[in-house]
Amino acid sequence: MSLFKKIFSSEKKETLDKGLEKSKTSFFSKLSKAVAGKSKVDDDVLDNLEEVLVTSDVGVKTTIKIIERIENRVSRDKYLGTDELNQILREEIAGLLSETNIGEAADFEVPKNKKPYVLMVVGVNGVGKTTTIGKLAHQFNKKGLKVVLGAADTFRAAAIDQLQVWADRVGVPIIKQDMGSDPASVAFDTLQSGVNQDADVIIIDTAGRLHNKVNLMNELTKVKRVMQKVIGDAPHDVLLVLDGSTGQNAFEQAKQFTAATEVTSLAVTKLDGTAKGGVVIGISDQFQIPVKYIGVGEGIEDLQVFNKYEFVDSFFK
């Protein structure tokens, strides 16, 4: 199928295959039980397949779309054998994502007409937000881009310290203040410093509290407003980091944050340690926001640019 051209380097593809191993094993174990004793795709198989997709964290709405597409294939082709189901699923899910997921990131590139390019990162504590920032800084730095980090998650001293560790590891400057400082003040200082240093990319970390959506919204709105005093159209991207291992909870976090602030891209982390990789399919379909990055391992190179076709290829390989 032309959708599945080889796009990643073999090394990256191997990392992706390995990172999705648990999800794939769990999915195909359920799928084999769903079609046991059946030679063709009938109503029973479709009912069982629906359960497999929902329990694989694809999500109810996306599952219904996939089942409808397969029902259309069955009625059109008259006979579909269960031995074909893997390939059909692969094709229909890739087709669904190609229709609904807008845009895809190029390989850790930023628009050349935005300098400095300001990326604000949001997400609840514990999802891998700071680690994602560190790995992004590494990838941008590796491409020869000058990166400045801003530690605007001033609610926790650990968040500032962790970002400092990543700044040291990657070899990029960090702007920070004491715990309890005004996050907007840190963001302002970071952007001013980035402009003065002729930075290509500025990445701002923010606090991950969801217990009060109104406070979160007010804080993020203030941070954005203050940034715009330095760079009129900042931030250029608001990246929401979600923990893929939480399955359906990641959907809920996405709903909460998209309600609290204008999220423009998503990163889904920790996919290597979970059997819930199907959540990426559901999130890609349900939110009109592109999944830009996925985390498929703990190594510094294991944050990958998300490509829907490569993802589906690895999932159904």
What would the keywords be for this entry?
8 strands, alpha/beta, eight-stranded mixed β-sheet, single chain
Can you describe what's shown?
The protein is an alpha/beta fold and 317 residues long. The chain has twelve helices and eight strands. It has helices spanning 10-19, 21-34, 43-55, 60-77, 85-100, 129-142, 157-170, 183-196, 213-227, 248-260, 278-286, 308-315, and strands at residues 117-122, 147-152, 174-175, 201-206, 237-243, 265-269, 291-295, 303-305. It has an eight-stranded mixed β-sheet, sandwiched between helices. Helix 4 (60-77) packs across helix 5 (85-100), helix 6 packs parallel to helix 7 (157-170) and helix 9 crosses helix 10. The radius of gyration is 21 Å and the shape is elongated.
Task: Characterize this entry briefly.
The chain is built from twelve helices and eight strands. The chain has 317 residues and is of the alpha/beta class.
Helices, strands, pairings?
Layout: H1 10-19, H2 21-34, H3 43-55, H4 60-77, H5 85-100, E1 117-122, H6 129-142, E2 147-152, H7 157-170, E3 174-175, H8 183-196, E4 201-206, H9 213-227, E5 237-243, H10 248-260, E6 265-269, H11 278-286, E7 291-295, E8 303-305, H12 308-315
Helix pairs in contact: 2-3, 3-4, 4-5, 4-11, 5-11, 5-12, 6-7, 8-9, 9-10
